[in-house]
Amino acid sequence: MRIQSDKNARIELMKKTILFLSIICASGLTGATIYNSLVDAKSWGFDIPTSIQTARDYYQNADPRNFYFIAGPVNQALILLALILFWKDSVSLRFYFAASFLLYAAIIGLTFAYFVPRNLILFTWPISDHLQQLRTASAQWSHMNWLRSLLGLAGVFFSFRGLDTYYQQNSQPMKQQPS
Fold it and tell me: Is residue 154 part of a domain?
């Protein structure tokens, strides 16, 4: 009986660890997108064309997209793994983790459908021939990145709600000690 109890404890620890890693990863990604809105996008759009050229020069050796290409799939895999691991625990946990998974998937879809084309305009098109397109792409990027951040925040919220629900379902009431 003790062996089964130890095995169950290790499984529960693994499940919680995966969920915590998912929340940490998603929170980091969301924080990075908010930083992009508050700092990067404002800098890119401040004095086009000079600001675009400065950003291109700055990103010549390291590009923030590299962070998203690594952390994004890791985040998606972690929340999917959490969804699978907690699947049998309760319907509410399935809902919360599935909602997080779908929100993070929506971010990926939005990124490829909306942001990648604007990134190409901002960071690869010749500057002198496309000033108006650069200004438009910069403004659009700035506005829509807040939606991407909101989706990330909602995903993190659902993951935290799932974590809270898990602890509520698995908490054992404290026994009163006689005085």
Answer: yes
Structural domain including 88 reads 2-170
In a domain, 175, yes or no: no
- Residues for the chain: how many in total? 179
The CA-CA-CA angle for residues 119, 122, 123, to 5°, reads 80
pTM: 0.89
Nearest Cα to Cα of residue 99 among 52, 158, 59: 158
Tens digit of pLDDT for each residue in 123-170? 999 999 999 999 999 999 999 999 999 999 999 999 999 999 999 998
The CB-side HSE value for 19 (13 A sphere, CA atoms) comes to 28
CA 93, 150, 17 angle in degrees (round to 5)? 40
Per the structure, how many domains does the chain have? 1
pLDDT digits (tens, 9 = 90+) for 1-39: 677 788 888 999 999 999 999 999 999 999 999 999 999
